[in-house]
Structures are given as C-alpha cells and as structure tokens.
Design a protein that fits this description.
Helices cover 39% and strands 13% of the residues. With 323 residues, it is α/β, with parallel strands linked by helices.
C-alpha cells in the first residue's frame, strides 16, 4: 500500500480509506455488521496496509466507533489515522445534534470515549449546520484542536461557497483550518467537479470522496437482492434507478472494463482515485472479497480515451448528498 499526504499536511494516509458505516449494530440498520462479523474485515484492512479509518458518531448511534475501536485496540495508536464526524442527531434531545459550541464539546468527548483514545486524527463536519453561526462552529473547533483532542479538521458535503467562507474565517482569525473535504463523488454523480474539486485543488485541501461505487451500482452487477439493497433508504434518495443516463454510464463502464479484462468495480474505483485533487477514496467493505477490487484498482492505468469514454454519458444532475 502506498501512502500520500492529506492535502498540504504532513499526515500520511493510505491511498484507500476504510469506510466504517457498515460496522456497529444491526439494530441501527439490518445491513450493518456486528463486532464479530466486523473484526475480520478490519483485520484484513490492516494486513493490506490501510491505516485510514473513516467513522461518524451517528453510525449505529455510537456503536460503530466502539466496534472499530475494539478491533483496533491492539494496534499501536501512532500507526492509525482515526477519522470521525459529527453533526447528525445522536438522540431526541434538541442540543444533541448540529454544530453548536455545546454539541461540539460534548460530541468530541463522546467520540474520544467510544474510541478509547485521547485524540482524534481527523475530526470532520458531517454536514453544514444552517441553524448555527459558522463563526461559533469554527471557534469551537479551534478550541478542541488547541486542547489536544483533535489533530486535524475536515468537512464533508457542502456548497463550495460555504467551505471557502469557512476557510476564509479560519485564516482571518488564526483558527485551526480545514485540511480535507469529503464529498459525494463517483462516475454517476460528478457535480463536485464544478466548484468544490477545483477549490480543493487550488487551496491544497485533501479530498476523500464517499460512495465511489455509487452504493454498489457501479459494481455493474445484476440487481441485488441483498438486505442493504432492499433497505438502504439513502441509496434510493441518491440514485434514481430509472434514469437512462445512469444506465448509459454503466454501459460505458462495462465497455472499458471489458477492454481491460477487469471487473467494472475496479475501473470505477480507479477512475475516482486518479481524478485531480483526489487523495483517497473511502471504500465500504462488507465482505472480504470486496477488498480485491479496491486494491487492484490502485494498479489500473486508464488512458485518456478510457476516461473520455467513461465520462461521455454524464449530464448535470440536481445536488444530492448535501443534506
């Protein structure tokens, strides 16, 4: 496994990040793996050299962080890059959500406790909070960095103007800056190419895209009858299975994959991983064999003609994934 700097920082991360939404409690979602089923996958990630683990406090309402922490407990802390996120509701309490100063202080302590560590490597805003002044959020984030609870700050899906406003306020006030962005980005959804990715490239922000396989659709297999395919409401909201454009993208993907003699998933991963500004795609793994495509994709060399063919069917889409 090769390692790369996260943006302009000195932090070295593996070229793939393991997305940990799948680990936690099946009580949260029927497709989530419990600790016993999660451990072999996390162990395999370590064997492959993956050091970057992306979590969120809301995954299994905290149980996701606990399961990952248990699986990593025997690994020396300095060898791990633990990333987690905050914003989404953790209970029915009106203050147990969002990006207020109150919630940030409580959320970071909650994640530290569940992770069994005294610092988080990358602490990320899961979404933009329209109900809290951004200055309040950024000031509080600066405080948790200065307190030593967080090493670096990141953000996730938001508008480019919102992200640039935040970066400007951080610079003007001498606050700890965002060093990474986690956008929704794949062959089926490329709206981030318009403003966010050029912004990140210009500002030296590391980019760690989520859903590089479009919730499995870019694996280009026959319709699945898996539990997740039947019950993942987010996938239904992000991708309209009736869109002819998406079918055309899959057809182009299959054609390029056939020419390379590789599964479509490898080509889809390779396309994301090699786009300008991208640091490390976040791969969601629920079965050990799925690592094969993710790892093999790092060795795929796409020609300019391949890229042009893969991208040709795409047309503008409404924003998806910001809320």
């Amino acid at each position: 496994m090769d390692y790369i700097n996260l943006g302009r920082t000195g932090l070295k991360v593996s070229r793939l990040a393991l997305g940990c939404m799948t680990f936690g409690s099946p009580n949260w979602a029927p497709w989530v793996l419990d600790e016993a089923a999660s451990r072999p996958i996390i162990a395999r990630a370590l064997e492959l050299g993956i050091n970057f683990f992306d979590m969120a406090d809301m995954y299994s309402t905290g149980a996701g962080e606990e399961v990952v922490a248990a699986a990593l407990r025997d690994v020396p802390r300095h060898k791990l890059v633990l990333a987690t996120k905050l914003y989404n509701p953790m209970s029915q309490d009106p203050n147990d959500r969002g990006l207020s100063r109150k919630h940030i202080f409580e959320a970071v302590d909650g994640s530290l406790r569940r992770l069994g560590t005294d610092y988080i490597d990358l602490y990320q805003l899961h979404r933009f909070d329209y109900d809290t002044p951004i200055e309040e959020t950024l000031d509080a984030l600066n405080d948790v960095v200065r307190a030593g609870k967080v090493r670096y700050l990141g953000a996730s899906s938001m508008h480019a103007w919102q992200f640039m406003k935040a970066l400007g306020l951080q610079r003007a006030n001498g606050w700890a800056p965002f060093v990474s962005m986690q956008p929704h980005y794949n062959l089926m959804y490329r709206e981030e190419e318009r403003e966010m990715l050029p912004l990140c490239l210009s500002e030296g922000i590391g980019v760690i895209p989520w859903s590089p396989l479009a919730r499995g659709r870019l694996a280009a297999r026959a319709e699945s009858d898996t539990t997740r395919a039947q019950t993942d409401k987010t996938a239904g909201a992000l991708y309209d299975r009736s869109q002819a454009q998406d079918d055309a993208v899959i057809a182009a993907l299959r054609a390029v994959a056939a020419r390379h003699g590789r599964p479509p998933a490898q080509i889809a991963y390779a396309w994301v991983a090699t786009r300008p500004a991208i640091t490390a795609p976040i791969v969601g793994i629920s079965k050990l064999h799925q690592f094969d495509d993710a790892m093999a994709a790092l060795e795929v060399c796409l020609s300019a003609d391949d890229v042009a063919e893969l991208e040709a069917p795409y047309n503008p889409k409404p924003l998806a994934g910001h809320q």
